[in-house]
């Protein structure tokens, strides 16, 4: 945003009707701007174009204690001051914000790569008044002591015969006005004052859906199913959460073999858009240990690092055959730091990070299969894999366990760690070495992937 700020000069624009010719302009004193009597300092001097006084908005908005954001994609400026937000789009006479909607007589203009906003509308909505002193050619902006509320006795600026609507208490909340499909795979939410809305998006499985929770927003749209579908979206639902926020749920088409509906979400000045696309699943397989780190060693000499590498290579082949993008943390007997494994997981942002290990205990009696997770949101993921793996291997289901395992650290990545069986148990050590058992492990994990991602 800083670069944009440098490259674009914002300016207030007000109409004056007292000047008609350049000669007259030259004969008069220089234009100046004062806020509460204090002159505004700016690199850009006020200028006159088409009988209008143009004032740099950055200096003025800073003097008013507000901030300006510019969204070049939509050519929209959002001015925020306290709890009041107004949003103006270049060449649009409609101004929207926390106050609602309003028609303005002078739209925002883009001239010579500079954006000019009408000062009267902006200042009034922030409770200021604007006056043009003809004699001194001074733009006088008066800001009330209590920002955000209208001045008690406003003086109409010269371009306004009457005062417009000002902010009202019920107008302070951004409003969701429209939920619709705006393009191929693109689903949009039009929100007045969207800059003040925060959202949280997350996916749920069985069935696959995307949830977008909006905070600090109201709507007149009735809750329930909305008549919006298309492409990968089977349906859209709107709900009101207990905390008053709005929940939008996108019901997504089931995944094809090796693919999954993925999404990119973006927030602009005018709303929030979700771009859905069918993409290959990306799975990171993390064979535990390696190199100097042997992992657990059984009485018969079976080493954990060898078993998990063998299973991981078989699994990678199976997943690639399914069209899944597969990344192996190691594909040979190499030592890899735990931090580097977690970092790769974070960087690659896979749909699943799967760490494969073999268990060990002091007691030779201990046996069976375990699945570990780190964050509560992945407990269900762990349950799916634990069940499929224990059944596939035909071993005791020891259940899911929660722990602060380093490789599962990136919270945004669905991550689990499976302990296939106990190398410290004589029977299971022999099984772990066998190709048949390793193939069963691969089948169990593949079933977990199919079940979790709802692959056909
Ligand atoms: Zn291990």
UniProtKB/TrEMBL annotation:
Q: Which GO terms describe its molecular function?
A: N-acetylmuramoyl-L-alanine amidase activity
The UniProt entry, under InterPro entries, shows: AMIN_dom, Cu_amine_oxidase-like_N, Mao_N_sf, MurNAc-LAA_cat, N-acetylmuramoyl_amidase_3
Q: What is this protein called?
A: AMIN domain-containing protein
Q: What does the record list as GO biological process? A: peptidoglycan catabolic process
UniProt feature, compositional bias: Pro residues: 147-160
Q: Domain of life of the organism in this record? A: Bacteria
- Where is coiled-coil annotated? none
Q: Where is the MurNAc-LAA domain?
A: 342-450
Q: Where is the signal peptide?
A: 1-27
Under Pfam families, the record lists:
Amidase_3, AMIN, Cu_amine_oxidN1
- What are the UniProt keywords, alphabetically? Hydrolase, Signal
